[in-house]
Amino acid sequence: MQLQLDEVRRLTGPNLLWNKPGAIVDVFISHGDGVSVVGCWQHWAGVILSEFGWQQDTTYRLHAQGANMALSAPLDALYTACGLAELAWDCCLAEMNNQPLPDWQHRLAELRLELAQEVNPALLSLVSSAKENNVTSLCDDDRVSLGMGASVSVWPVVALPKASAVNWRSFSDIPVAFITGTNGKSTSVRLAAEMAKAAGLVAGVTSTDFIRVGDDIIDHGDYSGPGGARMLLRDPRTDIAFLEVARGGLLRRGLPVERVEAALITNVASDHLGQYGINTLEALAEVKFMVSKGLNKKAVLVVNADNALVVNQALKTAKTLCWFSLDENNSLIKQQIESGGRAVFVRSGMLVYHADGRCEDVCSIVDIPMTFNGNALHNVENALGVVGLAKALQLPHDAIKSGLLNFGSNALDNPGRGNRYRVKGCDVIVDFAHNEHSVSAVVSMVNRMPAQKRIVMFSHAGDRSDDDIKSLTEAVIKLQPSAYVVSEIEHYLRGRVMGEIPALVQDILNNNGVPSQAIGISDTPLLGAQKAIKQAEPGDVILLFVLDQRDQVHQWLSDQSDVG
Q1: Residue 108 has pLDDT above 90, yes or no
Q2: Where are the beta strands (DSSP E) in 266-378?
Q3: Which helix (H) or strand (E) holds 264?
Q4: What is the pLDDT of residues 120-149, one digit of tens each?
Q5: Does the pLDDT at position 500 exceed 80?
Q6: Cα separation values, 497 from 48, 221, 234, Å
Q7: What is the C-alpha separation between 242 and 247, in angstroms, rounded?
Q8: Could you tell me which of 8, 136, 10, 127 has the C-alpha nearest to residue 77?
Q9: How many whole angstroms separate alpha carbon 297 and alpha carbon 310?
Q10: HSE toward the beta carbon, residue 530, CA cutoff 13 A
Q11: pLDDT band at 56 (very low <50, low <70, confident <90, very high)
Q12: What is the reported pTM?
């Protein structure tokens, strides 16, 4: 049997294993019985917790590569909990390998000293009182806040007020929604914010690209985890919040907020499998549906009726559902209408919302800029989902329609997602698609657009397996372009050497019947974009999958634009 510790980390919110805060140990197990390993860890966790004087629970999840094992802990002792969980693993590892046990009593003595430095009774009292008074509290290592938006108050974690001195009636929540899924998350939060803006609200957005309040981008970077949510909800300007919650943040820490008014799950498709013990699409779907744990009693879960993985999970939940579909004859849509439930769908080219036995036309699909005259079916799906979300948040109908009509396919409204330029009499489409599901969706869109011929530039990150790169490249081939440009992305080599990925892609293209003279290589995405457009003639469509240098590519295309 081979056993290896992967990671020990804190769980700060409801998570995949349960709804408790605590510590989680990720381990790899090969050539052995995972059940016996988990049993041994739980035995030692019990011994150590008993000796430590803690009464806490343990749980676990087995998967093909190993196990995730967790123990619960108070919010003011999560680092100590990590030490206890790892110590239990060290003792388990020694026992399973028939080796001498570590001096766990000595380590416990050290952890008691660490706990004395970590405990914060004032924090536990404040958080407990907040729950009793139905007030949202948000905690991190440095600060604690009560309320959201304009009502928020924030204190240093070392200088908290007594719960009895707090005016609990002064705090209130703002409407908050989770948006998750494999693809379409960033587009959805931005579109939702546009609808809220049309309703006269200052919308806050967290995403994998930036954190924004109204039109003010606070910072660029990946803010799809709890840290971004706290920053946004503590901003007094925020009237309504749309939180993109990605797989990584959900698995690392759990939900960023324990109570929200609505959630949207766009879709589930293959991406990032093999991390944190998530090895199957079914397990990935379970991760996405973690957002349902944060829904309050009256909240609505908006789900994709055209995605089988989403459907399978949604049918297991008791939450209030709003189904969306490209097809009004989808059986789930028909059932929802018959029962008077919530649904969003396409009927005769019109986006339609149904609730309480009444259908309501929202707007024509071709009038929504991001759908590219209805050719971008993935963005039609995004629009459907966001309408369901906006309705769940009770945004006005006119504001929802205005948001759809005013949200553009440009680098200002939706940077990196279906941005359209006009250069040399050609349509140029720039997209960030980087997994097979999203690449196929964009290729399908471009294939629907009229073109003399099509040209494509694309890249792959080095942490993709050879099989993944093959699948992604074959998805690009479905565009049937006259020319391919394969770009190196040095920033994302991730263990590979320069030239390795372009050579692999060229072999894949050749094996699929693409002649070598139709394949070009570039050192960067910017040079690749320039090479692709140099080959174009008026009436062509050029598709650029830009995974790096997005700002540089945007600036160059803007400078070359036929408009202005």
Answers
A1: yes
A2: 295-304, 320-325, 342-347, 350-355, 358-364
A3: strand 260-265
A4: 999 999 999 999 999 999 999 999 999 999
A5: yes
A6: 46, 26, 44
A7: 16
A8: 10
A9: 21
A10: 11
A11: very high
A12: 0.90
SS3 at position 239? coil
Q: Give the Å distances, CA to CA, from 109 to 55, 95, 153, 546.
A: 17, 21, 37, 53
For residues 58-62, give the mean pLDDT: 96
One-character DSSP codes across 488-556 = P-GGG-TT--TTHHHHHHHHHHHHTT--GGGEEEESSHHHHHHHHHHT--TT-EEEEE-SS-HHHHHHH
Do residues 395 and 300 lie in contact, with contact meaning Cβ atoms separated by under 8 Å? no
Rounded Cα distance between 122 and 198, Å, is: 42
Tokens of 10: 């804190």
Taking 90 as the threshold, does the pLDDT of residue 412 lie above it? Answer: no
Contact 223, 235 (CB under 8 A): no
Q: What are phi and psi of 530, to 5 degrees?
A: -65, -40
d(CA 107, CA 80): 11
Helix (H, G, I), strand (E, B) or coil at 457: strand
- Answer yes or no: are the C-beta atoms of 354 and 344 closer than 8 Å: yes
Work out the number of other CB atoms within 10 angstroms of the CB of residue 148: 27
Strand arrangement of the beta sheet that strand 483-487 belongs to: 419-423, 426-431, 541-545, 454-458, 483-487, 519-522
DSSP structure class, residue 275: B
What's the full length of the chain, in residues? 564
3-class SS at 431? Answer: strand
Residue located via tokens 């992604």? 472
The mean per-residue pLDDT over the stretch 398-415 comes to 88
Beta bridge partners of 260: 295
For strands 143-146 and 419-423, give the pairing: unpaired
Task: Tell me the pairing of strands 216-220 and 66-72.
Answer: unpaired
Closest CA to 250 of 185, 180, 190, 320: 180
Enter the tokens of residue 261.
């008014």
Separation in Å, CA 419 to CA 176, 427, 550: 28, 10, 11
Q: Taking residues 332-361, report their average pLDDT.
A: 96
- The whole-angstrom distance between residue 8's C-alpha and the CA centroid of its chain comes to 22
